[in-house]
Amino acid sequence: MSEADIHFDFFAYLKAAISERPDRGSVTYGDVRAEYTDGLSGRADIVVFDDDGAPVFIVEAKRPDGDGSRETDPYSADVIRQAFGYAGDLGAPFFCTYNEKRLVVFDAFEKGVPLLERSQKSYIISDPEEFADTLLDEVADLMEGDKNWDAVDDVFIERVNTLHEYMSPRVETELENHLNEDEDFQSDFEQWTAAQGIEYDRDDEDEREEVQREFAQQAAYLIINKVIFYKILESSPTYSKDIDPLVPRPSHVQEDLEEYFSHLVDEVDFEAIYEHDNIYSEIPLDAVEGKLRAFILELDDYDLSQFNSDVIGRIYEGVIPADRRRAMGEYYTPPAICDLITRLTVQSSDDTVLDPACGSGGFLVSAYHRLHDKLPEPAGGHEHILSHLSGVEINRFPAHLTAINLAIQDLSAYTEWVDVEIKDFFDVKKYQKLGGREMAGAGGTETEEGLGDQRGGYDAVVGNPPYIRQENIDDKDKVRNHLSSDEIDAEDMSSYSDIYAYFITHGTEFLADGVDFGFITSDRWLDTQYGEDVQQFLLDNYEIRAIIKFDRQVFDDALVDSSVVILRRQSDKSERDSNVAKFLRLKQELSIDDIAAIVEEEAEPNKLVTNDDYRLVTRKQAALHHEKKWNVFFFAPPLYFDLDAHPAVVELGDIAGVSRGITTGANPFFFGHTDEFDELGLEPYSTHALKATG
Ligand SMILES: C[S@@+](CC[C@H](N)C(=O)[O-])C[C@H]1O[C@@H](n2cnc3c(N)ncnc32)[C@H](O)[C@@H]1O
């Protein structure tokens, strides 16, 4: 479809929607004109007027799939400037840039704010006809002040995602061409995929396309990230004097970027961010360099210092498809959870912290803040703190983000070293120094006498291990290999265990006595058969300080099936048995300090405290050896505990044979809906025992 068709179609939709319903609250729409020139130095694609003939908004429409030489991106500075110019000439309060897939509305009257940072609201469009009607309402609401503009960081993320959407398919085509034309590159690519454990058979069309698509997405993402990070450094007083402003020459963008980046690594460092497998830089970027260059220049209009590490993480979420992230057992941990766990496990400014599945660094950033707060003299502590943080991550991209996220915590200080290793945690050996340089692909500095010997192991291990069900674990033998080590002796761990169970067992090898291990994970281990082995492992190796669960309303459902576990390594059995374990169920959102106070307060065993905010059950650890399903501590009604303690009550299995009955398949009969449970007055205890479908 040509550009003209796009804006004529949209024009026709707007016209029809207005004649259907001109009155939209604060605005009564009137005429709509296409190719409007009156009083303009150019030709505005669409102008929408109110019923008094005053312009309300103008639309500049561009094709979404242009050839790169034309401006086709609604965030492109040139398109925005053009549309803004028309809005200014006509006195229209709003202008929009549109490319059939996306429309962005801008506030034309905002004074003193750079154009690209103007209030804006972005829409993804699936049906332009339907959207034309929506747009009229939205603009009327914006006029009335009833609609919020997008937050500045959302705007930036949308902008970056749009660029990534533009670049990925073009890089994919370049990759395919390059593979066809250059046999050496083809063999490098095949070797590289094999080394990454990626199955890639060029004769299998589906597989070939999938691998190449993903690779292209990652390559596009990497280059965008490097550019953004360079510009962040460029705007920081500490680094700006050491690096040249990033202004690649037209038609030499790829070559110039390589130069800028290698100069940065030589002069300043950040190897972890800028150096990785050469294979990424071998793809020609000719098809995207115009757009990339325009983006680089456009970044001068943003105040990058306002974007924190959360923004970088969200860019990653936006550009790497969700199903891909899910397949890797990856997703982000809410910052409040990271903060809760580091608050309960990191005790002093000298603590060393390991996250064995660090993703994009949520826990390490949280630990950074915790160490920072604990430092007697926080100023200048950046290097000290970074030297106390270590991460392992199997996937290159989140690992790259961790490095960026940690480095940008203090841009007034130099970052010499970010200790994030790209490795399968099950290949990392106890007391092996984790080498940040390994991640940079620049040699690696592993040594057998590393952090462990120097510092006596980590002082805290934290994280959100992946959730990968046993049937999907690739190499179970490798993952289970450590179970027979003298240190942990867990050979009997059920082979039905989800991978997080092995993160717990292997993580244990990195902990000395008295050290805390805090993580969030699926709570299946609290009521499954394999979970009993996990429970036993904890009882045999740790003082269980607290297990924390969250009711539906606390984290909007996101964490109902998860639990936070806070442990302290303890080799002395009598100490373990006399420990009082806490089962805390949060019913309302509480501050981290309040939760920490409940966990840290000394408690008597066999207590049941229930109030509007939480329910707390305490048990002496010795008593837990006889409990199979620990979920009862969170959900059973008080009567259960009374009955359980009664000498006349025994388990059914002790007096009768218990076996599985006939499977009826009559699910509607057995599965309830949460709403029905409410109506039947079965809350608050029984919904967890009954199967609910929503
Ligand atoms: C649930 S996510 C952790 C998210 C992280 N806490 C964050 O907020 O970004 C689990 C992470 O473990 C990584 N992972 C999966 N298997 C791994 C392994 N065998 N070794 C190391 N990391 C692994 C995944 O790539 C993913 O980033």
TrEMBL record:
Q: Which UniProt keywords apply?
A: Methyltransferase, Plasmid, Restriction system, S-adenosyl-L-methionine, Transferase
According to the UniProt entry, the coiled-coil residues are none
Q: List each copy of the DNA methylase adenine-specific domain by range.
A: 309-580
Q: Which molecular-function annotations from GO does this UniProt entry contain?
A: DNA binding; N-methyltransferase activity; site-specific DNA-methyltransferase (adenine-specific) activity
Which Gene Ontology BP annotations are present? Answer: DNA restriction-modification system; methylation
Q: Which Pfam families match?
A: N6_Mtase
What is this protein identified as? N-6 DNA methylase
Task: Write the lineage as a comma-separated list.
Answer: Archaea, Methanobacteriati, Methanobacteriota, Stenosarchaea group, Halobacteria
